[in-house]
Amino acid sequence: MKPTIDFKDFTKLDLRLAKIVKAEMVEEADKLLKITLDVGELGERVVVAGIREWYKPEDLAGKLVVYLVNLEPKNIRGIESQGMIVAAGKDEAVLLHPDRKIKPGEIVR
Hints:
Shape: globular
Distance between the termini: 21 Å
Strand order of the largest sheet: 3-2-1-4-7
Structural class: mainly beta
Low-confidence stretches: none
């Protein structure tokens, strides 16, 4: 278990639901996908995710996922990754989905 954090630190995270618009393979990268997200009123964002081993790009379009909006952008293989998709699992990446229909951009609380 990681160290306990203060509730104020937790409230700094901006988690939202996002709809995957499209996913593409990142050239010369076995584990990476470039994913374009619809984040509702925040518009479209691009993330680079290391989930290629478990997900095919063509199977991701239209899925709702949990997205960490306010992670500092990072350049990965020449692509600016604007946040992070949240996944679970120690030995595999399992994307988290809402159990009911909800629109992109909604805040995760």
